[in-house]
Amino acid sequence: MDYAIELQNVCKNYDNFKLDHVTMNVPKGSVVGFVGENGAGKTTTIKAILNLITVDSGKIQVFGQDHVEQEQAIKEQIGVVFDESCFHEQLTAPEIGKVMSKIYKEWQPREFDEFLRRFQLPAQKKIKEYSRGMKMKLSIAVAMSHKAKLLILDEATSGLDPIVRDEILELFLDFIQDEEHTILVSSHIISDLEKIADYIIFIHGGKILFQKNKDELLYEYGIIRCSEEQFRKLDPKLCISYRKNQFGYEVLTGKRKEIGKIYRDLVIDQADIENIILFYVKGVRL
Ligand SMILES: Nc1ncnc2c1ncn2[C@@H]1O[C@H](COP(=O)(O)OP(=O)(O)OP(=O)(O)O)[C@@H](O)[C@H]1O
């Protein structure tokens, strides 16, 4: 498989946090959803990929090239959107377009203008007068106006209302129609990721807990709802974690089919991604 991004054993130490041997990859032509709770290490990983922070050890490749040695060439091909605007607040959107035309060899002024119209971003207002959502849309317009092959989006849709979010998800789906195009997107809006992602990478406390094909994930994982007696009979090797509530036990399994074959009387519901994350983070591990 061809990868747009590959990380191998990447470590970065801060005082109270470390990226701990992060190994993950983003297959070319796919949408990868990057999930994890606040402070799990998503932005740190993305900053490492973009060489905005120096890692302590490990290897990072983008389009098969070293992310430091080939930084300039790589960045030409990447569109990046962070949850905070990094544009000069005194400029207007058209002025930002002019700045970008000097930065990117493949800058597409017409496409950019079209995005400004589509997103209804006023040409005469300065960025400091933009709302959070408007700034976000401007970042997306810039990211998608220089013939990027890879979009890296860190909480890019978090400030947007559901209608605009939907429009932007459509844009991303259009973008991904080209098989050379790839998206890495971190988001807390899991329902958005369920709509567009092919793979899910889950980071927790600086460690990658899993990278899985989304459909396989939804197929393999399940939540068993059972009594204490049934719970005691479960094979812990087939289960991941559990939560106890007033009605009994809820148990996350990654082996739904096996459990179903062995324990025929158990109720096993499909687990959505949000629940899977919740059980990994809040559940008692087995
Ligand atoms: N420059 C820094 N110096 C020290 N610690 C840092 C620095 N940058 C990030 N951290 C720490 O690294 C940890 C991971 O932060 P990161 O921003 O990567 O999380 P995240 O998964 O993106 O979270 P969120 O969903 O809240 O954006 C946090 O504990 C944060 O305080």
Automatic annotation (TrEMBL):
Domain of life: Bacteria
Tagged with keyword Membrane: no
Alphabetized UniProt keyword annotations: ATP-binding, Nucleotide-binding, Transport
InterPro entries linked to this entry: AAA+_ATPase, ABC_transporter-like_ATP-bd, ABC_Transporter_VariousFunc, P-loop_NTPase
SMART domains (UniProt xref): AAA
GO molecular function: ATP binding; ATP hydrolysis activity
CDD domains in the record: ABC_DR_subfamily_A
Database matches in PROSITE patterns: ABC_TRANSPORTER_2
Residue ranges of every copy of the ABC transporter domain listed in the record: 5-230
Pfam family, one: ABC_tran
Protein name: ABC transporter ATP-binding protein
Species annotation: Diplocloster agilis
